[in-house]
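Posted in: Protein Modeling Q&A

I'm a second-year student putting together a small comparison for a lab meeting, and my supervisor asked me to include a predicted structure for histidine kinase. I've never done this before, so apologies if this is the wrong subforum. The sequence is pasted below exactly as I got it from our records. If anyone can share the structure token output, I'd also love a short note on what stands out.
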Amino acid sequence: MKKLLLVFSLLLWCTTLLGSEIQEQKDSLKSLLDNTVIPQERFKLLKQIANIYQDSSQEAHWLQQLMNESLTNKDFDMHEWSVRQLTRLYNNLDNEDCVNFYAHYSDSLSKKSGRYSDHYFATQLLYNQYLIEKHHLEKATLNANYLYETAKAYNSNMGIVCSNECLALINTYIGLDSIAANYHLEAVQILPKEKETMGLRAQLLTDLIASLLKMKDLDDAEEYIEELENHIDEMYENKVYYPYDRGWMMLYTYKIELATYQKRYSEIPAYIAKVESHAPKVVTPYMFFYYETCLARYYKSIGQNSTALRMVDAAISKTAVENSRFQLGRLKADILTEQGLFREAAVEYRNITNIYEQSIKQQFIENISELSNMHNIKNLQLKINKLEIQKLKDKQTRIVAWIVFAIFLSGCFFYWNTFRLNQKLNREKKELQISEDKYRLACEHAMESDRQKSLFLSNMSHEIRTPLNAIVGFANILIEGDIEKEEKEEYVKIINNNSDLLLNLINDILDFSKIESEKYRFSFDYHNLQECCYNVLESIKSKVKPSVKLSFITDGDTDTNFRLYTDKLRFQQVLINLIGNACKFTQNGFISLSYKFDKEAKLVYFSVTDTGSGIPLDKQEQIFERFVKLNTFVQGTGLGLSICKLIVERLGGKIWLDKKYSEGCRFIFTHPLAQ
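Accepted answer (user: helix_wrangler)
Welcome! Here is the predicted structure, written out as tokens:
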């Protein structure tokens, strides 16, 4: 008993002494700051003070002071560094408003300056991590793709690293750990080994180890745990700004998990002691959640089920993430089953089932809300674009007026000289005639050698000119004024219809170019199949003629909630192109969309059938070739079916024309059932 009291007293004395030393360090640094006026020296002191208060509200005060002073002194690198650290801090403190503010501030700062630094990409990575934690996967995916495109445009390795890390975290969230590990590993390999990137490398290694442990790739996990330990020690020696207590706590938690999987139970108490020594200085709830989850697995492995249950309950109390609660619920149910408490285990299984169902419902609601917000943003952007176009037209009108006026003055000035030039022009006329003959021969030769290109340009000229003439013509009528409201609405409707037509023509050309060159990155996810089909029919029904019936036939054995792993936008584009073609050529009868499952072949067969004019036998072999049009009097680029073929093949299927069907036209394509 006396020995225990002695040890406790010694620990209390050490803690008091350490706290006193830290307070003296704080006071000393603040005193130096008050007496320093050189900006760079003040920046160093502010960073040191912020590091002492790491992961606390007081750290925010010193980082904000650093951000303001660096902006005043136009040290933009230090300014962006402080914004990055504030984003990291509020991410750890789970302050959503502040995370959003500093992430958007960083984005607007870079767009305004045209400078996309490493700090910008690191800040956006932190923002994406927060989005994933809050289940905003679609927004996080869009941001990751935007980061990737920006990084490519500015040739930034840091940007590529951050976009890879974002994609890795998204795949981790949806359970694709092997893909996530590949993204993590690629990011680690690309990241340059510099002092400025040591903190980010530690984060990448931490995430990579987590993926490897989830996959139970223990050999690689052990290798990277050792690398992480050496890396943190190296950072500590070089005095790199980093949350060391949190880093060490995570490191030894990984060692506990690895030792549990490898059944090296004798080493774990030492690791637990290491974690407990750093835990008092860590405020991130996730760290304690992960630590207690690993302890639960450890105690379950050594047969201490009661202690394991306490650890599970403690971990559950520290997370609101449904997926984590689901995994912990399964672990708890397994422990209860081992104890023979089958009734309690059944109750726990029922609870985790309810959690899973609620998670699916909540995610669906959030996705619908996010799509609605994106739609509103697009509408607002469309209005802004229209205003900008109107301003551009006004500017062009003024320029044309000045040009006409200048031409008129020039004509008056040079008119008196015309008679003198006529004689010279007559002499040159014969020479010009000879030149024209030579030019004509050269043009004919060029046109013959480039006939396919000229034909395409001619078609596009016709296809673009038709809606463009309508837009310009009716726009001029609107400008004249004195038009009835009904007529004005009709003219505006015509202008909008022709604008949509023109936009579709250009989109077809751009889509074909992107997909054929394989520069377009497909975004695969699970989507409700029937919902996708109904969305297509809803968007296309306005183009169906009154005398034509549009129908949708599903496989009778299909679950209405069946989710297809596909790129939703491109899958729907194929259906819209096929049904849109059917609408153009079907005057009477019906247009039908149907699908059927072939579980043995693991395929879904989709078909679009109509009672239209059909395709002549001599043209059936050419319909999937580019720029092929069966009816030159119908609007289109001749690229629709070529685009469908490219998309279907990229989705892993095939597309063909059903030559046995003779009452119109029937296109069939396949799509893999599973990933």
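A couple of things worth pointing out for your meeting: The longest helix spans residues 342-415. Residues 548 and 626 are 29 Å apart (CA to CA).
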